[in-house]
User: Which sequence fits this backbone?
């Protein structure tokens, strides 16, 4: 199962407490660990977290710096824990606008956990689904008979994916907004969407478990007919 999360609402969490937005991001970074561990416990095979979008570069310089400092620290302190738990780390998105120092930290985390197979933790940094789709389309342009699977391979390559990304089964967004904000547009084609009002720093294992529980009761049809109503209506 692939779960993707748009971790939104850090700023509002902080403002509600009369704290600077950076305090919200700190609290948000803390909230990540519990969800990662809970996902692994619940047999999620791929967990994709939206940490920094390409559009987020437009925020004030100090906030952008705070976010990257937190990301760097998170990778430096949490990689060992991931390794112990069999969690493979992969950062996806553009790399050409990241600092050399951060790139080294990213590569270290990816290399140290490259053999882990229990769960893949994918963290989106400088990510824009539209940018990735466009870059993959450019790579495809000389392959006239290439199909869906080949496009997914190109997409994985432009995203620096360790392998082709499986389709998202469940997309969770915290913070109350009901939009995708340029996250995994291709991979979410048939994702079940789950929007929660609580801000990301307050999203805990219980809230995550509730999202999985609700997902388990959804009927996924992928454009087909569900057997029960078809039988009832006698349309077979
Ligand atoms: C999500 O929280 C973190 C990032 C986008 C990096 P926000 O910072 O967007 O928080 P709100 O939406 O302003 O509350
Ligand atoms: C989406 O949140 C990006 C991340 C969570 C990293 P934003 O706060 O940037 O999205 P918008 O601006 O509400 O669409
Ligand atoms: Mg936001």
Assistant:
């Amino acid at each position: 199962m692939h779960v993707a999360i748009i971790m939104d609402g850090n700023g509002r969490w902080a403002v509600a407490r009369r704290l600077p937005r950076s305090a919200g991001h700190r609290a948000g970074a803390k909230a990540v660990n519990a969800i990662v561990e809970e996902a692994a416990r619940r047999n999620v095979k791929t967990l994709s977290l939206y940490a920094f979008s390409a559009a987020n570069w437009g925020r004030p310089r100090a906030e952008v710096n705070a976010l990257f400092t937190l990301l760097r620290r998170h990778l430096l302190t949490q990689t060992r824990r991931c390794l112990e738990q069999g969690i493979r780390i992969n950062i996806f998105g553009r790399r050409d606008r990241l600092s050399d120092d951060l790139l080294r930290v990213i590569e270290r985390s990816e290399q140290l956990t490259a053999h882990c197979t229990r769960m893949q933790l994918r963290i989106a940094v400088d990510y824009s689904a539209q940018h990735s789709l466009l870059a993959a389309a450019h790579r495809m342009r000389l392959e006239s008979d290439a199909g869906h699977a080949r496009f997914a391979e190109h997409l994985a390559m432009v995203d620096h994916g360790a392998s082709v990304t499986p389709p998202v089964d469940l997309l969770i967004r915290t913070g109350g907004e009901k939009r995708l904000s340029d996250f995994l547009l291709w991979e979410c084609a048939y994702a079940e969407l789950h929007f929660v009002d609580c801000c990301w720093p307050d999203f805990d294992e219980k809230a995550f478990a509730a999202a999985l529980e609700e997902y388990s009761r959804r009927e996924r049809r992928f454009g087909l007919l569900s057997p029960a109503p078809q039988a009832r209506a006698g349309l077979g």
Observations:
- The first strand starts at residue 2 and ends at 6.
